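User: quick one - fold this with flavin-adenine dinucleotide bound?
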Amino acid sequence: MRFDYSKEDEEFRREVRQFFREHAPADISRKWRVGAHPPARDDIRRWQRILYERGWGAPHWPVEHGGTGWSALRKHIFMEELYNADAMDYGWQSTQMVAPVIIAFGSDWQRERFLGPILRGDEFWCQGFSEPNAGSDLAGLKTTAVLDGDEYIINGQKIWTSDATIADWGFFLVKTDTTVKPQRGISFLLVKMDTPGITVRPIVSIEGGKGLNEVFLENVRVPKAHLVGEAGMGWTYAKYLLEKERTASAFLYFNKRELQRAKDIAAQELVDGVRLIDTPAFARKVADIEADLMALEWSVLRILAEEKSERNLDAVVSALKISGSEMQQRVTQLQMDALGPRVMRFDDHGEGHGDLVVDESWPDYVGGRTSGYLIARASTIYGGAREVQKNIIAKLAFGL
Ligand SMILES: Cc1cc2nc3c(=O)[nH]c(=O)nc-3n(C[C@H](O)[C@H](O)[C@H](O)COP(=O)(O)OP(=O)(O)OC[C@H]3O[C@@H](n4cnc5c(N)ncnc54)[C@H](O)[C@@H]3O)c2cc1C
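Assistant: Sure. Structure tokens for the protein plus flavin-adenine dinucleotide:
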């Protein structure tokens, strides 16, 4: 496969780079770089609004709903530059998860009501799928929604719901029929997070972040008009949502950015007067990761080149998820190796901001690295655990 950027693509890259340089708010980028999690609601809104005003609020949406109509390659360039600029990449539960489902399966009223506020950054969403006994096996979920006149009444509990404390809305998988096969009885409901009966309880994660939550739902009344598509089809919509961004699971842009950051750190750290990056042991580690990351990038580009193909790529996407999530752990480990004993100085200052505030005498690049390393341990779990991805590969690629 040959792969070249055209002159127009290079020009596009310059335009995007300049835009981020001039318009990405420095305060938000700094917090994003050091991994403050979850980001402040106002920061998410402010940055989404800026992107929206430039016409780039949701590049991958269909043009008629406010998308850009860019080729897959341009979206790739956009994401590379977004990460190179340390500009915030957040709000994907809204723009990349729930919105494509509403566009594909929602009612006209839902498209009218929900897409504009997402695009403008006025409303932000969380994803309520996992439950205490239903994570990898979502068919086992127990939260129910019973129709009562024009409303559903929801009872149950969700867990690991990222950003539930700052989200305006949540998209929930609920059981609307317990008499049919598990997958057939699941529906996809849009729920306002301040509806009476919803209690959100944060779970503090290892790096001190307060982005994860338990969500309790007790007699929560939701208008029937908030059901997406047909009752009982939630499983199909959820699969569509998870398949929509086939290459996102590779975390390519994060991995490239963080590898570069590890190299930048190692170029400034000295060992006996020698730059760490020039020492053979460290250079070998970098080379190992760099080669694998290059392979990951080419795999992503090959999938992007098949943008319009109907070929079933599920096994490939699972392979990308495995390598991409392991790569997150490797690049953040490399940063730890580069920083040495300073990674032990980890203090979340009770703010859920990881190591946002570090020793003032240390270089700025120390900030956020330890919390980034710690939260990356979760990358092989969320979005489909590694073992489950291996099962998919075994079945689809090898027929086992
Ligand atoms: C940081 C983070 C953010 C998250 N954000 C969200 C969110 O916003 N919304 C949401 O709904 N969920 C979210 N989740 C939940 C996530 O989707 C689940 O953790 C994930 O699907 C795994 O489910 P589980 O935790 O129930 O583990 P389980 O499914 O109980 O798995 C436990 C272990 O068993 C293994 N296992 C499970 N089934 C099999 C099998 N068939 N064969 C072999 N091994 C198996 C798994 O690989 C894992 O190692 C988040 C999780 C994390 C860690």
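One thing worth noting: Residues 127-130, 135-136, 160-162, 212, 378, 381-382, 385-388, 391 surround flavin-adenine dinucleotide (CB under 6 Å).
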